[in-house]
């Protein structure tokens, strides 16, 4: 949401120049000796909103309200001595143009002392010749980092005065008229960087000043300022504001997104002044927070160039002093001991370099970038650099080339409009190119973040970088700019970086994100990166490959054309049409009544625009509502303003101005507050604003702390150990971490059972193993052993990165396989070589002539045992593996490695069997993690107890031998797959709601993709999106509030409704997976939806929603407006359905059939034998063809069926074996799938699905679905059923429908 209070275009207008008094003195000096000394610059006028008040109106009524787009500014007094007006020409009627009052009222945040120097950075002199008008740009930053922006126009005015009388030879006296020229500066200050627009405004105003009498000068400036104060700032999005300031039409572009700054300058200017490689050097210097000084002979270029680079590094934000223009008197600023970005005139080059050594000097005029302390500047990482240079080749930077095939425009405004369109397109391209550069530099950062503990593992991140890129990364990681970037990533900020990073993430990386496997290069990556023609390093921990030559570019960069990149960037699609809204002609801006009439006209125009906008274009409708609410607020119509801002919930809540609305609510008089509270929607808005304001105050001001991962220095108890392991990124699962703790503390049990001498012996031989010094003391892990374990794990991981596999081996492996373990060279029954383990198989890398010999896939293993082989007089430990595909047994003389490989292979074998039986690939991933942890435990302990300690991690092998889990054949045949949506958290989360949306033909991947999607609602308002063709996570989670989600409904291809426990209905766009609409009419938790089928293609789609208090609201889907609402008398309304034009409502105490007007038609009570059931009805289904009503019960293991004609009592009861209660039901073809709470033989809760044939009224299938109750079911086009489990299981099952 937009949190800043919006204001008008003008913050202040300041006139700076030489005062009348000093000008008179200078003229006298000129008459004496003819030389012109430097002039002292003074502030002559300050104009800031508000310009009119009600007491200036005709009726004389008083009010403190000031109708202007401005903040409530604190003001201070700027004192200057009284001045005497002088005459500028022979016209005695002319009065002083710049005579000011003794006391100027100045906004608190404007420093006038600095402004005088910045308006005349090279000083002011009275000259004998006139100068052309010139412009330059300023940026002001206060101590809190808030910026305002200024555009300065310098223009010359002639000064005529009479010199002292001269005595001629004939005795007569005469006066000589002298003409000099002085310069004035008009500085327009705005909160927003509208550099081009404000320059255009000043250009129009200077034309007006040419014809204005000097006596009217001050009033004319004030009127100009007051007009600019009437211009509203457009909200982020597609709507630009246009106003007329004769002779030009001025256009204010909006921000592209709420998180992007306003861009109203030419972003291609740096590309005209510098080569792309030099632009990269400047960007790298910014990222490393060097001290940068821009140099130019043209003051206007300094700020424009600096602002371009600020946009180039977005979303990173410069955190240090930022003064793009330094006047002659301000050069001592470069002595600041911190990093900074400043700019000065080229003539000061020697002064700057003599004073300071550690500088990056950027000469804009010469196009050079040099460092005063190092021969060469560090460059950005090579892969990102090559991609950026390639993109720059396609930039069309010259507007003249665009005009070659165009006709000549005869209207100046047409010429300007054509240029703006070209510039907007080019700016979009450049922003996408530079954003892609930042993404390529930092795209892997998220893989080294622990969100729960807010830890960044910087050492591992550096270890994954290319050697030649280490220097720049080491410097960048210690900067404030990167720290702020990390904080945004840990806060999961959805900004342009996140959207582009997700859109560029490969399918392989998305699939890898859905597993718990440690980082290893896949065979696909090895094939991709190991080609010698690509010239790549073996280490693969980088975001992009080397793009040094065309062959590498063809493999990656050319996969995405420039046109494709524009849309994939996740920030702005240039194909989105830009709309403009033209403001009415400005009134006399200093008369209250005229200003009020102007606002009335503006509101009328916006009302017409809202009426003409189509409901499908909700984004444009939201911008109109926003502008009208803004105008209503400054016009004093607070209640109407609140109504407009309330409309943003249904159109685009992302631009909701929460701070402005909060200010409006606080400023409501008693009468207006009562009026607002009589409107239901405004009453809810006021209460919601107060609630959100309280939450905002409770948030930490710094956005949360960030920690760097460090190895422990103290002994670790279990809780500390779990936190450290999770921070390290080794493993997240809580159960696995506990088993690892037991493995590393296996010495503790020994010490507790042995005597003192044995304990001392353990101390001497294995100091890193934990033991207990006193009876009953808790186990702890020594920091030394933790360091050994961590380093061994990381070294093994790094070694796997550098594994070189021959091409003949790669041909036998699947694309997503990784080599996780290599043995030493051993003798086997298939020859001498190294045994390699992937997540699917074991194979032998033969020595001598490199070759591949398949040993076995894990699913084909029949037995694994340790034996011994004779070697001379010795017996060498060997490992025997019997497989179903070969008669002979594979044997390998693994010697000291035999016990470890035996443990690992048995765990992988058991995990593979569990994964196949349960159709759950996570079991295999977890078994692989267990095997690698065994390897790390043995490698770090190096004691006789190491193998015993590693056996503590043998989870699936023990489960297989201790409690054989046979999956019933019916379940195994019906279950197709399982996915785990809780991989990014330490413990499973309940799957509360599932919703399947079918694919859409004709929808490209650039527009959200046409593949079917599965929407999964998890805890605390998190919604995950899966591609239903590959079951890969499609995007990062969509956050919809912070409460539990209860229901979902795919209303149409553009709206997915989600009902929340917080009483809101959130609307997600399935294409963009963004949530920017809320329906706020319900008071309590939303529990169900129903969609009424359209009678014909011309009728409107109608949706129903219900809440727990019995409220039912009927919605016009296209307009998102309430058609009617009523309340059903019941105990806890749970769900609703439409049947034969009637609405059926399911509550705990009964089923109610309701007419369209809300009146009750009939009611179905609980069956007699369940009348005392506390849970009551849980769900129900209606079959139109057979007119059957089926219902399940929350705490009874049965389903009942009524005939819709007679609902007095059920005609059929179906008992569900081992069922404790029905949670949910769906109909699929002629079947009912019921998700239930089952009971196991051991008395534990488990999730069961019962498939009921509605024609034969029998249970066809009883499926053992989950380890906890089934929370939700949904159908995928009647071909598959998807089930979601409660918290103990937290997985999604995919079932085949027969």
TrEMBL record:
Report domain UDENN positions: 71-496
Which keywords appear in this protein's UniProt record, sorted alphabetically? Guanine-nucleotide releasing factor
Question: Which biological process annotations from GO are given for this protein?
Answer: regulation of Rab protein signal transduction
Taxonomically, the superkingdom here is: Eukaryota
- InterPro entries listed in its UniProt record: cDENN_dom, dDENN_dom, DENN_C, DENN_Domain_GEFs, TPR_DENND3, Tripartite_DENN, WD40/YVTN_repeat-like_dom_sf, WD40_repeat_dom_sf
Query: Quick one: a GO cellular component term?
Result: cytoplasmic vesicle
**Which residue ranges are recorded for the region named Disordered?**
57-94
GO MF assignments: guanyl-nucleotide exchange factor activity
Matching SMART domains:
dDENN, DENN
Q: Where is the composition biased (Basic residues)?
A: 72-83
Name this polypeptide is given: DENN domain-containing protein 3
This chain's source organism reads: Triplophysa tibetana
Q: What is the lineage of its organism?
A: Eukaryota, Metazoa, Chordata, Craniata, Vertebrata
């Amino acid at each position: 949401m937009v949190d800043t209070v919006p204001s008008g275009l003008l913050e202040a207008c300041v006139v700076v120049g030489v005062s009348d008094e000093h000008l008179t003195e200078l003229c006298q000096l000129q008459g004496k000796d003819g030389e012109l000394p430097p002039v002292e610059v003074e502030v002559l006028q300050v104009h800031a909103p508000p310009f009119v008040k009600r007491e200036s109106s005709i009726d004389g009524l008083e009010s403190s309200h000031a109708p202007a787009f401005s903040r409530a500014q604190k003001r201070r007094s700027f004192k200057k001595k009284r001045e005497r007006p002088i005459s500028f020409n022979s016209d005695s009627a002319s009065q002083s143009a710049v005579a000011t009052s003794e006391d100027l009222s100045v906004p608190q945040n404007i420093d006038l002392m600095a402004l005088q120097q910045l308006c005349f950075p090279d000083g002011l002199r009275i000259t004998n010749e006139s100068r052309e008008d010139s412009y330059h740009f300023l940026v002001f930053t206060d101590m809190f980092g808030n910026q305002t922006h200024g555009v300065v126009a310098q223009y010359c005015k002639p000064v005529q005065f009479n010199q002292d009388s001269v005595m001629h030879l004939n005795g007569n006296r005469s006066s000589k008229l002298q003409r000099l020229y002085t310069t004035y500066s008009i500085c327009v200050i705005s909160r927003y960087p509208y550099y081009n627009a404000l320059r255009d405004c000043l250009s129009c105003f200077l034309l007006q000043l040419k014809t204005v009498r000097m006596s009217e000068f001050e009033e004319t400036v004030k009127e100009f300022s007051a007009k600019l104060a009437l211009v509203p700032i457009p909200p982020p999005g597609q709507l630009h504001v246009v106003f007329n300031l004769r002779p030009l039409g001025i256009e204010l572009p909006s921000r592209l997104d709420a998180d992007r700054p306003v861009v109203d300058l030419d972003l291609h200017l740096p590309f005209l002044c510098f080569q792309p490689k030099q632009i990269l050097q400047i960007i790298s210097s910014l990222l490393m927070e060097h001290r940068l000084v821009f140099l130019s002979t043209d003051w206007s270029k300094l700020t424009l160039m600096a602002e371009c680079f600020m946009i180039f590094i977005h979303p990173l934000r410069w955190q240090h002093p930022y003064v793009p223009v330094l006047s002659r008197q301000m050069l001592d600023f470069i002595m600041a001991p911190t990093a900074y970005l400043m700019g000065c005139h080229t003539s000061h080059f020697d002064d700057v370099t003599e004073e300071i050594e550690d500088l990056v000097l950027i000469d804009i005029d010469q196009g050079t970038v040099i460092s005063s302390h190092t021969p060469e500047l560090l460059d950005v990482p090579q892969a990102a650099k090559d991609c950026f240079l390639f993109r720059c080749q396609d930039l069309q930077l010259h507007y003249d080339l665009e005009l070659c095939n165009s006709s000549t425009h005869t209207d100046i405004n047409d010429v300007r409009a054509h240029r703006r369109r070209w510039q907007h397109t080019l700016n979009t391209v450049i922003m996408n190119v530079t954003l892609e550069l930042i993404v390529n530099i930092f795209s892997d950062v998220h893989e080294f973040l622990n969100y729960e503990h807010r830890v960044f593992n910087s050492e591992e991140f550096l270890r994954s970088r290319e050697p030649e890129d280490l220097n720049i990364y080491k410097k960048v990681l210690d900067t404030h700019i990167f720290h702020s970037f990390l904080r945004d990533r840990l806060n999961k900020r959805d900004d342009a970086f996140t959207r582009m990073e997700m859109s560029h993430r490969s399918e392989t990386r998305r699939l890898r994100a859905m597993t718990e496997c440690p980082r290893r290069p896949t065979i696909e990556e090895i094939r991709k990166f190991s080609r010698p023609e690509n010239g790549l390093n073996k280490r693969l921990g980088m975001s992009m490959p080397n793009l040094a030559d065309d062959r590498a570019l063809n493999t990656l960069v050319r996969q995405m054309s420039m046109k494709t990149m524009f849309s994939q960037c996740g920030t702005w699609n240039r194909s989105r049409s830009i709309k403009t809204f033209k403001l009415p002609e400005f009134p006399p801006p200093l008369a209250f009544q005229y200003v009020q009439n102007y606002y009335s006209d503006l509101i009328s125009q916006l009302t017409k625009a809202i009426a003409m906008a189509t409901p499908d274009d909700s984004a444009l409708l939201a911008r109109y509502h926003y502008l009208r609410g803004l105008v209503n607020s400054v016009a004093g119509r607070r209640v109407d303003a609140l109504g407009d801002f309330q409309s943003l919930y249904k159109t685009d809540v992302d631009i909701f101005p929460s701070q402005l609305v909060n200010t409006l609510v606080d400023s409501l008089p008693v009468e207006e507050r009562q009026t607002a509270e009589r409107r239901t929607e405004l009453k809810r808005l006021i209460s919601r604003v107060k609630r959100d304001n309280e939450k905002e105050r409770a948030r930490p001001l710094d956005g949360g702390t960030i920690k760097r991962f460090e190895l422990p220095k103290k002994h670790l108890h279990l809780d500390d150990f779990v936190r450290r392991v999770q921070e390290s990124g080794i493993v997240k699962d809580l159960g696995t971490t506990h088993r690892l703790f037991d493995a590393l503390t296996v010495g503790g049990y020994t010490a507790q059972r042995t005597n003192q001498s044995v304990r001392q012996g353990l101390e001497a031989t294995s100091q890193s193993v934990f033991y207990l010094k006193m009876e009953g003391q808790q186990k702890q892990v020594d920091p030394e052993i933790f360091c050994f374990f961590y380093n061994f794990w990381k070294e093994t991981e790094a070694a796997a990165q550098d594994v070189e596999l021959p091409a003949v081996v790669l041909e036998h492996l699947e694309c997503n396989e990784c080599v996780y373990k290599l043995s030493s060279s051993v003798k086997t029954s298939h020859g001498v070589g190294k045994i390699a383990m992937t997540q699917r198989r074991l194979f032998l890398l033969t020595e001598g002539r490199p070759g591949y010999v398949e040993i076995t896939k894990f699913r084909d293993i029949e037995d694994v045992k340790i034996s011994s082989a004779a070697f001379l007089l010795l017996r060498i430990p060997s490992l025997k593996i019997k497989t179903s595909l070969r008669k002979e047994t594979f044997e390998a003389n693994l010697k000291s490695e035999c016990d470890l490989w035996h443990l690992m292979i048995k765990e992988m074998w058991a995990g593979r069997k569990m994964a196949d039986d349960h159709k759950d690939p996570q079991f295999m991933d977890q078994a692989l993690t267990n095997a690698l942890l065994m390897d790390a435990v043995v490698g770090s302990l190096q004691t006789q107890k190491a193998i015993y300690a590693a056996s503590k991690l043998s989870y699936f092998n023990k489960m297989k031998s201790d409690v054989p889990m046979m999956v019933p054949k019916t379940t195994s045949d019906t279950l197709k797959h399982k996915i785990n949506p809780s991989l990014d958290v330490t413990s499973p989360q309940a799957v509360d709601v599932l919703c399947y949306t079918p694919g859409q033909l004709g929808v490209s991947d650039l527009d959200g993709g046409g593949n079917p999607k599965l929407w999964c609602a998890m805890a605390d308002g998190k919604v995950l999106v899966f591609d239903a063709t590959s079951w890969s996570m499609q995007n990062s989670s969509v956050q919809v509030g912070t409460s539990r989600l209860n229901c979902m409904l795919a209303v149409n291809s553009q709206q997915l409704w989600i009902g929340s426990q917080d009483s809101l209905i959130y609307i997600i766009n399935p294409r963009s997976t963004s949530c920017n609409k809320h329906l706020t009419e319900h008071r309590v938790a939303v529990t169900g939806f129903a969609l009424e089928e359209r009678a014909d293609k011309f009728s409107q789609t109608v949706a129903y929603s219900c809440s727990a208090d019995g409220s039912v609201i009927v919605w016009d889907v296209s307009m998102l407006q309430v058609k009617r609402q009523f309340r059903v008398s019941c105990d806890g309304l749970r769900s609703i359905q439409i049947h034969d034009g009637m609405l059926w409502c399911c509550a705990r105490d009964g089923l109610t059939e309701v007419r369209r007007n809300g009146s009750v038609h009939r009611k179905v009570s609980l069956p007699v034998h369940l009348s005392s059931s506390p849970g009551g009805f849980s769900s129900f289904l209606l079959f139109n063809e057979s007119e059957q009503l089926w219902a399940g019960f929350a705490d009874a293991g049965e389903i009942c069926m009524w005939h819709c004609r007679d609902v007095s009592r059920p005609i059929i009861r179906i008992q569900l074996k081992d069922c404790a209660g029905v949670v949910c039901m769906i109909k699929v073809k002629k079947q009912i799938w019921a998700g239930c709470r089952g009971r196991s033989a051991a008395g534990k809760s488990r999730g069961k699905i019962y498939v009921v044939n509605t024609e034969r009224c029998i249970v066809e299938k009883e499926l053992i679905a989950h380890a906890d109750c089934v929370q939700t079911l949904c159908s995928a086009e009647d071909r598959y059923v998807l089930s979601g489990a409660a918290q103990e299981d937290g997985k999604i099952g995919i079932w085949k429908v027969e």
